[in-house]
Amino acid sequence: MVAERSSRLEVRLVRRGFSDPQVAVGLLEEPWLHGLADDPLLLDALGATADPDLALLGLARLLEALDPAERHTLRDTLTSSKPLRDRLLSVLGASTALGDHLARHPRDWHALVTFELRDIHPGTEDFRRELHRRMRTAGTDRADALRIAYRRCLLTIAARDLSGTTDLPQTAAELADLAGATLQTALEIAAEEDPESAGRCRLAVIGMGKCGGRELNYVSDVDVIFVAEPQEGVEEHLAMQAGTRLAARLTRLCADTTGEGTIWPVDANLRPEGRNGPLVRTLASHLAYYQRWAKTWEFQALLKARPVAGDAELGAAYAEATAALVWQAAERDNFVADVQQMRRRVVDAIPAREVDRQLKLGPGGLRDVEFAVQLLQLVHGRTDLRLHSPTTLQALEALSAGGYVGRADAASLDAAYRFLRAMEHRIQLHRLRRTHLMPTDPADLRRLARSLAAHINDDTNADPVAALQREWKRHAVEVRRLHEKLFYRPLLDAVAELPAGVIGLSNEAAKARLEALGYADPAAALRHLSALASGVSRKAAIQRTLLPVLLGWFADSADPDAGLLNFRQVSDALGRTPWYLRLLRDESAAAEQLARVLSAGRLAPDLLLRAPEAVAMLGDPQGLQPRGRVALTQEIQAAVGRAGSAAAGVAAARAVRRRELFRTSAADVLGRFDEEPGAAVDAAGEALTVLNAATLQGALQACVAEWEAANGELPTRLAVIAMGRFGGREMGYGSDADVLFVHEPLLGVLDQDAAKAAFTVCNQLRTLLASPSTEPPLLVDADLRPEGRQGPLVRTLGSYEAYYRRWSHVWEFQALLRAEPVAGDPGLGERFRALIDPLRYPGAGVPTQDLLEIRRIKARIEAERLPRGADPTTHTKIGRGGLADVEWTVQLLQLQHGHVVPGLRTTRTRAALAAAVDAGLVGAEDAAVLDAAWVLASRVRSAVMLVRGRPGDSFPGEARELAGVARYLGYGSGHTGELVDDYRRTTRRARAVVEDLFYG
User: Fold this and answer.
1) Comparing C-alpha atoms, which of 815, 806, 870 is closest to residue 840?
2) Residue 437 gets which letter from DSSP?
3) How far are the Cα atoms of 225, 243, 295, 328, 335 from residue 291, in angstroms, in the given order?
4) 936: part of which helix (H) or strand (E)?
5) Cα 752 versus chain centre, distance
6) What separation, in Å, do the N-terminal and C-terminal C-alpha atoms of the chain show?
7) Handedness of CA 468, 474, 480, 483 (dihedral sign)
8) Dihedral angle over CA of 604, 609, 615, 618, nearest 10
9) pLDDT, tens digit (0-9, with 9 covering 90-100), for 476-498
10) Residue 572: pLDDT band with limits 50, 70, 90
11) pLDDT digits (tens, 9 = 90+) for 183-208
12) Are β-strands 737-745 and 716-722 bridged in parallel, bridged antiparallel, or unpaired?
């Protein structure tokens, strides 16, 4: 009979959600629970909890701990009072920690009957006084009494929350008020223990973060700032010492783990100077710090500052004084960039294994909502006092009412924030531990899902865990989407026609937001937005979808204005092309790449605007891969072959070059070459060298074809020898093509006839490649030829041999170290190489006289060729430790040892330097210093050209251009000074090595 009764009871328990009915039956047979199994109301109430097994266990422990009379009273109350039954069991089914508290202090169940917080409006003085009173009358040992009273109050708040008596904002506000009352009581205890310190100062406790915003969690560090003033007649330093003692004792009372355990840690690290600053300051000291030294995030933190304990008058004075500073923060340089960068740092700091479980810090988490709301508050709160609420949901409501956030977006964020906070509360409430991670244990997930059933818009009966996961992911995706667009979408509403009755962002508010984002000319930016997004066309509709995200990417650059202007120009050119907007709409990577390219400087956008169809490259996964010499030469030769004249043929070659320059510059801006800076410099230099060589080959073909069409077969062979950075395969975007022209008359042709034909072809080639055009010019510089500008443009191989044998200087042999055939007759180019190899790699090395001459020339260049007013510490070419220093040092080693070290017989600087290390000619550390300086100087020159659209050997003087150079080199917003310091440090070290190796 007993077994049959137990079996029937087990079935009833399973139907009510018990996971382990056998254990539950055993508990119900204990003396203190005897007879309750026959109460269907009690079983139903247990089944309605988050974890019926946990609730029953907690009830058994509570009843066991009570004396018989008290146990009888509780049993009677449970069966007769539904409100108490629901509150008590909901707590026991959700929180092991509060169940433990009731087992240790069983009479605290009366708090759920006698302390009806719903009768006192949260946030009123009555509410706070009642909390304070309960904690002051909790026993004899003050520290433990404080902790016991705190948990008794927490028990009541949790019961109201879990039973649905209060909503999330009320619960969070009650928790914050409980924290304030706890801090006040702890401060009074500290003052009683140390009356001398209490008599020397007035101390106020300022709540920060969620405590200050009255949106506290169940378990959280309570962020505070301490401010103190001396009592009359007390010296300031003595008052600050006294205040520090009181604040330290308050902190220990709340955080100590002895006796009844920790309440929560008190965190004062948001104070000026953080952990390194004094714990307590005067109000004047706080204000002096904020006015002179504070960072943007500190003003963002002050948005939630609120007096919560201590001297009320001093606390109010602190809040009033700092509030004015908060609403000026948006006027600081790089304000939005600083706030967004801080958010990115938070996300980047999350361990990879936790990113997908983070409710607070992860993408789509609580911090996304809070940061977006605070950012909008700080920008628009300067002129709109309605936005000054420290509470996230109240601020979001005010932003929506003011038209700063769309109503639908605000409603979605509100719902998502409430759900995510409810999840966070339930997770923390279980063991009263500070965590923001979704649990992984199935039992924990099941309990969490059941506790949130009322918050889930899905069927939780079949699989509550699956329903919870779906709801969580839905809200997280929505938060992330809105976080990314929230700051930018209303800007479009400001320039678009809105339906009647819809509140839109005002023109002035839109300008303020654009200015905060870093736009130098917000009025012009609004005009661009209006041109792009207004109207009812399909083009305008797609632009309105794209622009919120694009504006964010532009704002993340050094020059948002240029990015938006360039985008408008590209869109004006391609807006009617079906594939263009479809590409950007459907390929988010292409849209982001376009935004980054358009806002990274002038060179790539200028190239793109001359032929906007090159945007298609960004949609091709392989579109930005540099093309090889063979493929480029074939394409250019085919284009030249279709042309009817030399001018048309060279124009076709230049058009291909322009397109490929865009491909290379876009790949460079987007970091597609290599993560390692030296390898990226090598890859870009190789791509540019190959492109210019193919262009020269095509131009030579076009000019030869025109000459032959008019005169018959060209009477001589021609070869183009690359020199300088061209020959070293180290070209930059602004590099000229340094060359030598060599020819060899055909058999039986008079030298003067061959020379005349060669000059005509080579001179026409130079002219056509440099002539004004919509295509970027390629300047072909032949000044390194024998006799320089005074000598003939083209010489025969024999003429070169005679000159080098009789008249050349050592610097000319040095220049030949970088000579490399790149176009024209391959055989002639190789014969030229064979001619110069003994000259540039002399068998006897460098005679002392020549060595002195090289050093003299180098010193003269440094003294005479540095432009007037240029800073020698930042001039990348001939400044201290710059390109010339490194290259001349390496070239001297090549002249001295190239005849015996094969690795030195290369035109490339870095390859020759590595060979010198392998041969023991240079120490590895010295070589690394030289290599780092050469790479950095090369990157700076490339960055200057990419940003300004014209070459330069020094850092730009204009702030936005310098910021663009810094961005290209990997320095974040506001760190341009670090770039210049790093450059000077790197080149200073290189110069020391040059002094040793080159000058001896």
Assistant:
1) 815
2) B
3) 17, 23, 10, 11, 15
4) helix 924-948
5) 65
6) 107
7) negative
8) 10
9) 888 887 776 666 666 655 555 44
10) confident
11) 999 999 999 999 999 999 999 999 99
12) antiparallel
